[in-house]
Design brief:
Blueprint (H helix, E strand, L loop, with lengths): L23 E2 L11 H13 L13 H14 L22 E4 L1 H13 L6 E4 L5 H9 L3 E4 L9 H8 L4 E5 L11 H9 L7 E4 L20 E6 L12 E5 L1 H12 L8 H11 L2 H24 L3 E2 L6 E5 L5 H10 L2 E2 L1 E2 L9 E4 L3 H10 L1
Parallel strand pairs: 1-11, 3-4, 3-5, 5-6, 6-7
Antiparallel strand pairs: 2-8, 7-8, 9-10, 10-13, 12-13
The structure holds 4'-deoxy-4'-aminopyridoxal-5'-phosphate.
Amino acid sequence: MLANRLKTLNPYKPGEQLTDREYIKLNANENAFPPPKEVANAVSNLLNTNLKSLSLYPDPDSTDLRVEIANFLNKTGGVLANTKDAKSKLDFEITSDMIFCGNGSDEVLSFVFYAFFDDDKKVVTPEFSYSFYPVYAGYYGIELEKVPLKSDFSLDVEKMLEYGKNSSGMIFANPNAPTGIALSLTEIKNMLDNFPKDRVFVVDEAYVDFGTESALSLLKDYKNLLVVRTFSKSICLAGMRIGYTVGNPELIKALTLVKNSFNHFPVDVICKTAAIAALKSYEYYEKITTEIVKTREWFSQELSKKGYSVIPSKTNFVFVNHPTKKGSEIYEDVKKTGILIRHFATPGIENFVRITIGTREQMEALLKVM
Ligand code: PMP
């Protein structure tokens, strides 16, 4: 009854969504804060004044949303956290034909794999990065060249470029997950200079708003660059499933072709309304992002004082280990007290746990049990 291809599927394992008791949830890098009230107002206004819009299919091209995303990026320069190394400027205008929207960046990434990565050559990616990349590669029958991280867990850029010369493309998260370490804009530019111009180079900026320079400014000069982004982290809308990518219009057209061969209408009417309202609340997001960064720095210091090693993070999570306690033990002990953090049983990182930065109160509660 089942198709043979199911035998080789190896699905993504998201952070637990347990319901057996109430948990402080620090295991999926969701935002500690709710979206601004403008989002609630916009959604209830839609439902109260234009309920009929739910009877109709949404705009297949998400035109209004793409225009608002372009405005938002042009206004912010592409990052929200108010830190000196994160502020970036664009010296060109991002236009809506450079933007493709999907149902979470997971869907966008799936289309990226399908549209740009051939199965005749490997795709270069770090050994440890977003764990959905190997899942998509498996799904589409694309081989990955998984390049080990350096001993300090930073990307081995030289090796990645060496493999990149004869690859079908490159993909990594910046800052990387689950390590939280970021490459600078100069390093990304150097990678692009040394990467084949006829292959697509994907930078997944899911966590960029928490203190990393964005690669958006490089889009002007590198037509093979795609920057993937999400509303799930800094914009507090993981439950709505909205993601996008920014790149040259030819790449966007290819993604649109893939979308229209799969699901014509990915972003629904309510999600689109929420997302547009969110993008107009720039000051709110700048405030909470800065707050999360502050909590992260304080929490990292406090954990270090307790004997944990904390990798300096540029994200809304930290990756930590302890000299005597196993990662699985830390995870289990913390879970017993009603706090969920993330443990990966993957060899090489099995002694670490990944902890999402929540509110100051949540992190204080966690510190007590760690
Ligand atoms: N990229 C990275 C690096 C992530 O950690 C995540 C979140 N799990 C995603 C992409 C996907 O985010 P979403 O589908 O919620 O937009």
